[in-house]
Amino acid sequence: MVKVKLGCCGFPKARNQYYEALKLVEIQQTFYKPPKLETASKWRKEAPPGFEFTLKAWQLITHHATSPTYRKAKLNIPPEARELYGFFRPTEEVFKAWETTRAIAEALKAKIIVFQCPARFTPTGENIANMKAFFSQIDRGNFTLVWEPRGKWEDETIAALCEELGLVHCVDPFQRLPVTRGLAYFRLHGKTGYYYRYTRDDLMWLADLCSRYDEVYVLFNNVSMWESALELQGLLG
Known about the structure:
By secondary structure, the protein is of the alpha/beta class. The protein contains ten helices and eight strands.
């Protein structure tokens, strides 16, 4: 029987209400500016048994220092240091960002860490070499590492990197299907963007797709993420 885990990217409702309805959440704060370890431990303690956290890796690992998401997080990187951050560069700064991410994942007792890349992270020789250097040097513990590439990446390139580096290919299944098998990790951003509301037919199609995998994480990240997650939960019984 396929194991499907449903949740939202972030808490669209008060945490106590969320915990009562769903069993999974993907923490977004860790991408922008990680919370204190005490805060992560508090979330873990207040969540009921069986509730699962996943989290996004800190953007200092994946995004260039000129990304607007740095400004949103009020991270001011001096111009002379910007080339030391993001794009999986094997630098001290990036490895420290990984250690911060990993420590929070441990506090949350998370199993999965998601590396979401921007569209400007393209399959250049330098970027691929950086990925290989980063993932071969970090201590990944027992975490499952999930990679969400965006932009013009060919399936063959993604498949080769995932196999070599032990990664799970994360996708929005309404845009493309994953090239890895077994565990699927879906992040649903809206068929036409954040303000798209999934129809019942959309969710029935998604439920059928989930049946093709051994284990599936489904994380909604659209304007009606709460309603969509609950409706899919009902369809899956």
